[in-house]
Design brief:
The complex is a heterodimer. Chain A is mainly alpha-helical. Helices cover 64% and strands 6% of the residues of chain A. Chain A contains 13 helices and four strands. The termini of chain B are far apart. Classes of the chains: A mainly alpha, B alpha/beta.
Chain lengths: 345, 322
């Protein structure tokens, strides 16, 4: 009896099959890594943009104006003839042309944001160097500390999205594939306990969840310097509950589907609203109030909110009980329905 | 295993199965009785769609019958399911085992479901897969996969084995290998129920066969008995030029001819003594001025029994007589 333990063998079979399927490994582990890297790089905090300005030669004190502008930070100033200035502006090599004189003329395209910005900054610099005094004293305080950047917001969202995706695909897709192969039918023709089979599916999900968690959080911490304020145990509990609940949904979706196409469609149908509404890439608070009851009732919204609260704000687990119960109600109802409706043959 | 207190390993009475479908109800099984004795290899023979698979799946407890009685190893589905599952081994018509598991891993997995069973290594040796022990299932040939399916059925050390078309689609060599395996099971006193649409398979493996057509058993007996029922032991098949035919009555009047029938191309005679029948046949042809294109003789097979009983060929790939 001890030599062959059915639950252990079922679990081992799942783990082996998964690890031997490079595509599955990529979608579960490689894809979120790439997504985090891509988005993290795209929305990284960039240094202040340089302003490209040309000063037209021949009219007024071109050299004096250029000198004043060069004294200001982040200004790239060149002096060109009128024709060259015009061409360079047209081709986007410069954002603004200054024609010295009285009045001083700014030539630019008002529909180009960088030109509008350049006009204001150049005007500012020239007015000040001509002796303008600002009546109100101001000071800039730049917010670039970890915890407040886009990547900090993004990482918990990606983690939640990944827990949803791999929970649903990892259970739902695999089960329907087994049904299509008549493997489920072959299993129920043995004395295998059905509970062992279902536990092995969930167990395998929990095992796969650990590297997912490590990869997504690790990328955030090591590459983007995301600060994890909550404790790791609390995060692990959240990931665990998320993985279990979405496995339940996956099981439900797979409980009767007889074809891979059916289950793929159903799965996308269920996941699409959550991709859009559950605050993966931007806060779910941005949706209008009318939509909020729906948005807040989605399991991924609550998982993402809880993950953000714990990871970014260091909230204790107990403060997330309400959110977690929404998540678990979804998972629990799904499990019960899935077990009632499950089609083995 | 309880002591052998049953007379039939499989016993079913008036088995019926109706499927609901768009065009009305389809009766897949229409009142089928069966008794398979302990230790025998029993064949269910019939063309595709005869109801073989439906019948075997009801006996395996995978489908519910619409009505009728089923008793397996003296037990019933719905009452002793766990016990029954421990004592039967099943090879379904089509199971695609996980491609990325090795042969050994697959067998250990199936072994783990049974409280008592055979050593996976021993089963691999029995079906000739020892060399493939570490190969992934996805890399196996069709024949090797079928042998794996049989191995999965054997790994629980079953009293009763169900094999649904175990050799369909296999090359001749793989079929022979599988036949050897099945035969050796019989020698160890296992009861086997197999379905097939290959007559030669049934003749070689089965002590008794039931010919199934349209959900009913239309003949039952040992292959030898069924063949003897045709009256002759040889078949003469011939074809004439321009597709001409000779009247069946005329052929039946010939010496040693027991049966005569028209086939898709040419005609067939069942005879007791070919050396008497053939000269007589040739005389008729000469008298009527008919040209003989082809003439072959062979032993009667279950195939002939089936054609005689149903007027149909067994497999779809053969032309049925018009």
């Amino acid at each position: 009896m001890t030599k062959y333990h059915p639950l252990r063998e079922l679990l081992l079979a799942r783990l082996r099959e998964f690890m031997r399927e490079p595509e599955a490994v990529f979608w579960v582990y490689g894809f979120p890594l790439l997504l985090a890297l891509g988005l993290g790089i795209a929305f990284r905090n960039q240094p202040a943009e340089k302003v490209y300005v040309d000063v037209q030669q021949g009219a007024g004190d071109a050299y004096g104006v250029a000198r004043d502008l060069r004294n200001s930070a982040n200004m790239v100033v060149e002096i060109h003839s009128a024709g060259e200035c015009h061409d360079r502006l047209r081709l986007g090599k410069s954002s603004l042309v200054v024609i010295p004189g009285d009045p001083m003329t700014f030539v630019f395209d008002p529909t180009r944001p960088e030109s509008v910005l350049a006009r204001q900054r150049v005007d500012d610099v020239l007015q000040r160097s001509a002796g303008r005094r600002d009546p109100v004293a101001t000071r800039d305080d730049h917010l670039t500390e970890p915890g407040a950047r886009y990547i900090d917001f993004l990482v918990p969202g990606l983690l939640g999205m990944n827990l949803m995706g791999s929970g649903m695909w990892g259970v739902g897709f695999v089960i329907v594939d087994m049904r299509v192969r008549k493997l489920l039918k072959r299993f129920v023709a043995t004395p295998m306990k059905r509970a062992d089979f279902l536990w092995s599916m969930i167990g395998a999900r929990l095992v796969f969840m650990i590297p997912e968690l490590v990869i997504v959080l690790g990328t955030g911490v090591l590459i983007f310097g995301v600060l994890i304020k909550g404790n790791m145990f609390a995060i692990l509990v959240l990931a665990f509950l998320g993985a279990i609940s979405f496995s339940g949904l996956g099981l439900l979706v797979a409980s009767r589907a007889q074809r891979i196409e059916t289950v793929s469609g159903l799965m996308n149908l269920i996941m699409l609203p959550m991709w859009l509404l559950s605050g993966i890439f931007f806060s779910s608070d941005r949706f209008p109030d009318v939509l909020q009851p729906f948005v807040q009732s989605l399991p991924l919204t609550q998982l993402n909110n809880a993950l953000r609260a714990v990871i970014l704000e260091g909230a204790p687990l107990v403060s997330q009980v309400w959110r977690l119960s929404v998540l678990l109600v979804w998972g629990g109802i799904s499990f019960v329905c899935a077990l009632r409706w499950f089609r083995w043959n | 295993m309880p002591p052998v207190s049953f007379q039939s390993a499989i016993r079913c009475r008036d088995l019926r199965k109706e499927y609901r479908s768009r065009g009305g109800n389809v009766q897949a099984v229409r009142g089928l009785d069966l008794d398979v004795r302990p230790g025998e290899c029993f064949g269910l023979l019939g063309p595709n769609g005869a109801g073989k698979t439906t019948t075997i799946e009801i006996l395996e407890g995978l489908l519910d019958a619409t009505s009728g009685e089923v008793e397996i190893l003296g037990m019933r589905w719905g009452e002793h399911d766990d016990e029954l599952r421990q004592h039967i081994g099943i090879s379904l018509q089509e199971t695609r085992f996980p491609e990325k598991l090795s042969v050994r891993e697959t067998l250990v997995l199936f072994r783990s479901f049974y409280s008592d069973g055979n050593d996976p290594a021993a089963v691999m040796a029995e079906v000739g897969l020892t060399e493939k022990s570490k190969s992934w299932v996805g890399k196996l040939s069709g024949g090797q996969r079928q042998r794996l399916a049989v191995a999965c059925a054997l790994v629980g050390n079953p009293e009763l084995l169900f094999l649904d078309e175990p050799t369909t689609g296999l090359d001749p060599q793989s079929r022979r290998q599988l036949w050897d395996t099945i035969r050796s099971l019989g020698e160890r006193g296992k009861t086997t129920l197999l379905t097939t649409h290959y007559m030669d398979e049934a003749e070689r493996l089965c002590a008794r066969v039931a010919v199934v057509d349209q959900g009913k058993i239309i003949a039952l007996g040992s292959p030898a008995e069924l063949i003897a029922g045709l009256g002759g032991e040889h078949v003469i098949e011939f074809a004439l030029g321009n597709g001409s035919r000779v009247a069946v009555e005329e052929l039946l009047a010939l010496p040693a001819v027991k049966k005569a029938r028209t086939e898709a191309v040419g005609m067939a005679l069942t005879v007791t003594e070919p050396h008497v029948a053939i000269p007589a046949l040739l005389q008729i042809l000469e008298r009527q001025g008919l040209e003989l294109m082809r003439l072959t003789t062979r032993h009667v097979s279950l195939e002939d029994v089936f054609v005689h009983l149903t007027g149909k060929r067994l497999r779809d790939d053969e032309i049925s007589p018009s």
